[in-house]
Write a structure and sequence with these properties.
Helix Hairpins, 499 residues, rod-shaped, Beta-Lactamase, alpha+beta, Heat Shock Protein 90, 54% helix
């Protein structure tokens, strides 16, 4: 197994965690049992001491030492119970000494020699002590009775408790490595099983390519981060597929649109080369036709360049405060001549102050493209109305025309690139179907929304809602903003297009 792999690291951490838990549980169990057993021995020692004290307290003042010894032997049976008992009358007369224990766990004489005699501690100062070399827990205390003052020395064998602890220690010494080994193997199996969906994700991802973007990663219904990751990646793949399909469609449409004027230019130039006897008027007509196609080609390339910049995430060059009404008025005045040539009136009476913040040249491009689109599709003696207004939530720009209108089925598609509701008319008017796509992209840059409503034979209405900014404009600012964007009018007019 690769020690740098995720499976190895997860298994190692899992094993270390369980191993530490096992060791902690084993230590708590061992020392807890040891404390419990010693506490029981100490309690038993105190009870035996109390029984001897009671026997001495009941003895009369003239009681013989043999009688006291018999009473202790009868009630406590120290040899059978593996106990050590020694009773000494002050100043040092031995009253009772227990015999050898039945299990031979200690030597009573060796043990007795190690105990101090003549202990004068009171019962309140009774403190059991442990003698590890004798495997005993002992206690000594002094008591006063009518028959005299005695020193009691009592010991209990710790050998059974120590043997139980030794067996537990041996068991843990075997059990802990086994449990840790099982934890390592089990952890590895669990980790591999948990990472199996990740392997399936990797296998599916390896099969994907630009030619096979319909594949989707398997979604495991676990309700955790893995499921959310699978869903997010599938959503990303869906967006990637749509983007690739859109790019392919865009490339195919662009190639088709470029081929048409190039074909016309090629045909005209071939005719010019084959016909040597053309007069000046005929030659000018042919050259004029070529120039028209070149202008159309330039218009198309300019639109494609703008869209490519917008798709590449072009940032706002200069974000300023501007009055949308003043910008719309200045732009309409520049395009009034184009409208008058077609017999169309532009009405500006409904332009109310609407303050927004954005890139002036790009906002002007929105107005230019919407006006250009409206003028192209409005017949003679029609009108185009510009409206601006604002409220607490947004600033509104409306371009309304009395043109031919858009079919209801085409409304969701008018912002698609190269889309034309009327193919023949749009191409005759010089439109490439890019103008509204550019408008849509610029609106997205500014966080604005655009929508269209239309009725066939009655006209169309395009509405752009800019997010409202609570800003203030100096009286001179609208003029400054309009002057700033007016310089780019020539470039903007070349990039407009009809839907």
């Amino acid at each position: 197994m690769n020690p740098r792999s995720l499976a190895f690291r997860l298994t190692a951490w899992y094993t270390l965690l369980l191993g530490a838990t096992f060791l902690l549980v084993a230590a708590v169990t061992f020392f807890g049992l040891q404390h419990y057993l010693r506490s029981n021995l100490q309690d038993s020692l105190r009870r035996r001491t109390t029984e001897v004290e009671q026997i001495l307290a009941r003895a009369p003042s003239d009681a013989a030492d043999d009688a006291i010894a018999q009473e202790i032997e009868l009630h406590l049976a120290p040899e059978a119970n593996n106990r050590f008992i020694r009773v000494t009358r002050v100043p040092g007369k031995l009253v009772f000494l227990s015999g050898p224990p039945s299990d031979g766990s200690f030597n009573r004489f060796d043990f007795a020699a190690r105990l101090p005699s003549g202990n004068t501690k009171s019962a309140a100062e009774f403190h059991p002590a442990i003698l590890p070399e004798q495997h005993l827990i002992v206690g000594a205390t002094a008591t006063d009775t009518v028959s005299g003052q005695y020193v009691l020395e009592i010991g209990l064998s710790m050998l059974p408790s120590e043997m139980a602890l030794a067996r537990l220690r041996d068991l843990l010494a075997v059990l802990l490595p086994t449990l840790i080994g099982c934890a390592a193997v089990g952890g590895y199996l669990l980790v591999m099983r948990a990472l199996r969906p990740v392997d399936r994700l990797s296998q599916t991802a390896e099969q994907m390519s630009l030619q096979n973007l319909s594949l989707r990663l398997p979604v495991v219904a676990t309700g955790d981060a893995l499921e959310r990751l699978s869903i997010s990646l599938n959503n990303m793949l869906g967006r990637l597929r749509d983007s690739v399909q859109s790019s392919r469609r865009f490339l195919a449409d662009a190639s088709h649109e470029l081929r048409t004027p190039l074909t016309v230019i090629k045909g005209e130039l071939q005719e010019l080369s084959n016909e040597g006897g053309l007069t000046g008027d005929a030659l000018r007509e042919r050259v004029g036709s070529v120039l028209e196609e070149v202008a159309r080609l330039e218009h198309l390339v300019s639109g494609l360049l703008v869209l490519s910049r917008l798709d590449a995430g072009e940032t706002l060059r200069e974000c300023v405060e501007l009055d949308l009404a003043e910008l719309a008025r200045s732009t309409a005045e520049q395009m009034r001549l184009m409208a008058e040539d077609r017999g169309i009136a532009i009405e500006l009476s409904a332009l109310n102050r609407a303050v927004i913040r954005g890139d002036g040249s790009r906002i002007k491009q929105i107005v230019v493209n919407l006006l250009d689109n409206a003028i192209r599709f409005t017949p003679a003696r029609g009108s185009v109305i510009l409206r601006t207004s604002e409220d607490d939530t947004y600033a509104l720009l409306e371009v309304i025309d009395t043109g031919v209108g858009i079919p209801k089925a085409s409304l969701p598609l008018v912002f698609d690139r190269f889309y034309r509701a009327d193919e023949a008319r749009s191409r005759d008017d010089g439109g490439a179907g890019l103008g509204l796509s550019i408008v849509k992209s610029i609106c997205s840059m500014h966080g604005a929304d655009i929508e269209v409503s239309s009725q066939l034979g009655e006209g169309s209405c395009f509405r752009v809602r800019f997010p409202r900014r609570r800003v203030s404009l100096d009286p001179a600012r609208p003029a400054d903003s309009s002057e700033r964007v007016r310089a780019s009018t020539g470039q903007i007019l070349t990039t407009s297009g009809a839907s």
